[in-house]
Design goal:
Oligomer: single chain
Number of helices: 9
Shape: elongated
Largest sheet: 2 strands, antiparallel
Order of helices and strands: HHHHEEHEEHHHH
Length: about 200
Amino acid sequence: MRPHLRAGIAVYNAGRYHAAHDAWEDRWLALSAGEDERFLHGLIQFTAVVHHGRSGNWSGAGGLAESADEYLAELPADYRGVDLEPVRQFLARVAADPEAVDWAEPPRLTHEGAVIGYDDLDFEATAIATTVLAAADGYDEGLLEQAVEYARDELDDREDGRFVGLVFSFVREREQRPVVFQRLGDHVRRERQKDDDVAGLFD
């Protein structure tokens, strides 16, 4: 839960309201009924409320605000380290009158008392954010998934190698993302060629 939760919060706080739910969705779909399921379901709908409200879809925002509030209503105010009170207050305002809400400043999400950004993510949360941003921005998801696996290999070998650094840079350095993606692609292709060369020795 923790890496998915923090990745989604960071993506949301970066203003990628629609993309944020992808960090939580796979985890949510794997859950049966219970508090965690309601929690993630509510957060996913909350991000959809913000997405619709900022695009002027008042009926969509208002209806989802009521539904999201129902999912979150019976959870503790601080659930899994997330302060839900600002979220619930915002949802109540939207449900009452979506057009009266200041959509330029939706509430920021906190985890364990802090507003989470990309720089606060560990490797596993960054790997999830990489996949989310790749899907949202049209990057080759398969290539980035392979880059993440090579980065995990480096970590398993207790190395802080080029893949680890570039995966972090892909998420953290928005303006440089296309360049970082190109460099990751070059490194992935080289590693694939090495793997193919070794495999060919035993054919």
